[in-house]
Amino acid sequence: MKLKLSLLAVLAVALIAVFLFIQLGPNWDYALPRRLKKVLAIVITGGAIAYSTLIFQTITNNRILTPSIIGLDSLYMLIQTFVIFAFGSMSLPSTNKYLNFYISVGLMIAFVAVLYKLLFKREGRNLYFLLLIGLVLGTLFGSISTFMQVLIDPNEFLIVQGKMFASFNNVNTDLLVISIIIIGLVALYGQRLGKYLDVMSLGKEHAVNLGVPYDYVVKRLLVIVAILIAISTALVGPITFLGLLVVNVAYQFMRTYRHRYLIPGAILISIISLVGGQLIVERVFTFETTVSVIINFIGGTYFLYLLLREKKA
Q1: Count of CB atoms situated within 10 Å of the CB of 248
Q2: How far is CA 266 from the centre of its chain?
Q3: Own/partner pairs for 181-186, CB < 8 Å, 24+ apart?
Q4: What's the pTM?
Q5: Mean pLDDT over each residue of the chain, to the nearest integer
Q6: How far apart are alpha carbons 24 and 282 in whole angstroms?
Q7: Contact residues for 147 (Cβ-Cβ < 8 A; gap 6+)
Q8: Residue stretches of the chain with pLDDT short of 50
Q9: What is the 3-state composition of the chain as percent helix, strand, coil, each rounded to the nearest 5?
């Protein structure tokens, strides 16, 4: 396992080095700091998505689910569309990145808190009830967003359209700092619950029989997932299939169910995918597409492969 993790780490560092120094040119003192900020955004976004998706699949005991199924991506687009629909593209919530970031993160976390209230206020409602409600609300949010998008001015729709795809080109440095602080605190808190993950991957009944305080742990892990997805989405935009792709590749590559190896493996594969995808976007497609389009295309194809494989099994 340590050899595999070392190989992934070497590949990630090599790709980052290529990304930082390829065609740097004579104005390196201008270009290098910008590339460093972009790499930092890729690392924290890729790490947050991989970590949260792996935890989400463990507590749902399902390897074809991602946190986006509870509607966080759809809610993010609804917030962005509503701001422009109600206040215009030149309004303060739309032009001020800090305010937009705090509004988006706050509302997404509040949304998940409401879901928890629906889930746990009565006995007999399990985790799949939350997934079902989240799926229905996600579809509702998407429909409302589409309705508002067809009513707004075409020029403002282009601004909304630009927020539909993840971008690492215009990440604000100050947002990176607050994101790193929050993600770091969440990761430290998540370490306290990490000892339960291997047992919880066996399923609820086994976990309860082996003494895991299941509901207590699930509630807190879902809060961690919501915060990480909210921050990564608000920072760069939605990347639907990235988590599904990198976590399943991590399972196949690492060939283990021990989370102490899976978590760093999935994070490194996520960083490799994003840095490699951004290199392709910049050097092959010359910014004619976005990294989320490439990731979603590969991830969507891989998702169909997983479905067909599960059907045969």
Answers
A1: 21
A2: 12
A3: 182/227, 182/231, 183/44, 183/47, 183/48, 183/228, 183/231, 186/224, 186/227, 186/228
A4: 0.84
A5: 81
A6: 13
A7: none
A8: none
A9: 80, 0, 20
